[in-house]
Amino acid sequence: MKTISVIYVSYNSGEEILASVKSLREAGSRHALEVIAVDNASRDDSAARLAEAPHLTLLQNPMNLGYARAVNLGLTAATGDYVLVLNPDVTVRPGAVDALVEFMDAHPRAGIAGAKLLNEDGTLQHSCRSFYTFWTVLLRRTPLGKLFPKSRALRHHLMLDFDHASERAVDWVLGACMMVRRQAVAEVGPMDPRFFLYFEDVDWCYRMQTRGWEVWYVPGAVMNHVHKRASARNPFSRSLVAHITSFVHYTEKWNPAAYLLKRYRNLFKVLTLLVLDVAGAGAAYLAAIALRRSFHLDYFIAEPYQRFSLLYFVILLGTYYLSGLYRSSRRESASEELLALGKAGVLAGVVLMSSTFLSKERIVSRAVVLASVLLAVLLTWLLRGGLRALHRVLLRYHFDLRRLLLVGTAVEASALEQRLLRHPELGLEMVGRIAVGESEMERRGALGGPADLERVSAAERVQEIVVAPSGAGLPSLATALIWCRARSIDLRLLSDLAGMVGRGARAEDFLGLPAVAYRMAGLYPLERAFKRLADLVVGLAGLVLTLLPGLVHLGVSRGARRLRVEVLGRHGRPTRLTLVLRRDGRPAPDVLNPWAFAAVLAGGLSLVGPMPRRALPAPPPDLGALLTLRPGLTGAWRRRGRVDAADEARQLDLFYLRNWSLGLDLQLWLETLGAQLRGDHPAFLLARLRGEEATRPTAAAAPGEKGLA
């Protein structure tokens, strides 16, 4: 005897589930039944009624998470040998469950089996189908279906020519009744949570088959199902919106044409950015001319400006192109793009202004040229920012996710997956891994070995392959790089060596050997001197501007206080870090902290730098490189939502150290401006600093105390 876990999802459907459970028990089975109901925050008394039902485990969600997520929650609680997912409006007929179990036992490659479903009037319900095409969606969800009821595409989709009296492997079965093998779930994964309602069953069946599992229609198991088709009845219902959204998700995920578009997305991205830049530059040019005319109406002649516009567009957009502004990625920040646009704008402005001096006849106003370039930088940055904001909205709703395939061990895959879960804003999802080892243990749960890389990438619609350190030495990697380039699939190598590659490094041939060369910038000492000069100037200005507000804040804000701790300064020398804390213990904005700017002025801290670390009697040796710079009031470690642990901060600081430049300082200062104004600091850093505070013997001893580990 086996145990069958039966999962229901409830949303105001408690009464239907109780009726279905009653039919399930009355139908009888040779196997033990474990009934689980997941309530998606029903608005009626469904949860209360299900909670009172005997032999039923109720899981309650605080909000409506959607059908797929609710099923997945039930899967985590299920302990049975097989899982039977049933809709609340299914009535189980005698022998149906046992027939499904017998079939699954007899067909070990069957991942999903669906029962024969009947309508309320006893007629056949077409519960096994072929995969959707664009044409079948039109026929099923628009009035076109009534015009072409006997369409060949519709007959093929609904499998109308199948007798539905024999067992058959099919593309997919309705999610109203699915018996699922637990081993298949372990290999394929649960339902995709991005499907709120509809298409989660189609996607699950498709994924089963891409991983080698079969989907079967089992007519020996008969159940009744009230197929409401709510989305097809009302063209303005929320069900239809959910249906359309899920269809877009499914199409974007599996349609070959959509996959092709996503692989060659860079071409469309360049065209889109080019259109936005032309619009921004054109608007800036017209605005500058309008501004000029508003001051000198009598002297304005339009014709020279019309002739000059061609040169203006060519120089400006050409500079953008040469500056790499059409190779921007989704990971690029707004401040980073503003700096890049600013640099390109300066170069374009110099060229355009020079052209007005070279001309014998002054044809256009230099003020117009200057204003148009400045406005163009601002407008193109805003337009590009709007595009990025729109893309972030799409990512929030799980559109345009990039599918990653990892080449590495199970441990490396788990670690990467955890990092991806912490950063959903990147819009990346890992579809699986390619095992690098030959052992059975290592290959368990993998999609294949190195020889399967190309096949798996095509089947799983992969857009980026990430090679973990354990896979870096694979002989097939060089071949993979070639066909990845041919198919526009990105390849990323995770390597400790990459940590050494910083500013000025490039790959080159050295005596026939591949090598990474570092060309050290001769102006580096001068840039460091400018950084210290900037610290002195801004530190002095900050001290003057924040001294009075800071003292007033401490004086009038009840509970406000200073937290003073010793941190490791440059070359490991201890230096003082002061935070002004609010009554609730949160740091006050930096503009209320003159002591921080005083520390910058004194040379203990820098405006931008690595994260301050507590002073220790014996600093860890791995901090040696970071101690060559002064810790910063802000830095990459203060980016919102980017740093959750000390190890992540260390990685960001090492990247900062290897790639430091004045431009990077300005970029990080702009990126963390919001955090500085709010007083945000990483939670783990505050906990450590507060831990140091708690070790003080007395408050009076604070000025002379030493930091403790």
Number of helices: 26
- Report the principal-axis shape: globular
- Proportion in helices: 40-55%
Structural class: alpha/beta
Total number of beta strands: 22
Give the amount of beta strand, in percent: 15-25%
Largest sheet: 10 strands, mixed
C-alpha Rg, in Å? Answer: 32 Å
Q: Determine the mean pLDDT.
A: 85
Task: List segments where confidence is low: pLDDT < 50 over at least 5 consecutive residues.
Answer: 693-709
Distance between the termini: 58 Å
Give a written overview of the molecule.
By secondary structure, the protein is α/β, with parallel strands linked by helices. The chain is built from 26 helices and 22 strands. The strands form six sheets. Strands 1, 2, 3, 4, 5, 6, 7, 9, 11 and 12 form a ten-stranded mixed beta sheet that branches. A four-stranded parallel beta sheet has the order 14-13-15-16, sandwiched between helices. Helix 20 links the parallel strand 15 and strand 16. Helix 1 packs parallel to helix 2 and helix 21 runs antiparallel to helix 22. The longest helix has 33 residues. The two termini are 58 Å apart.
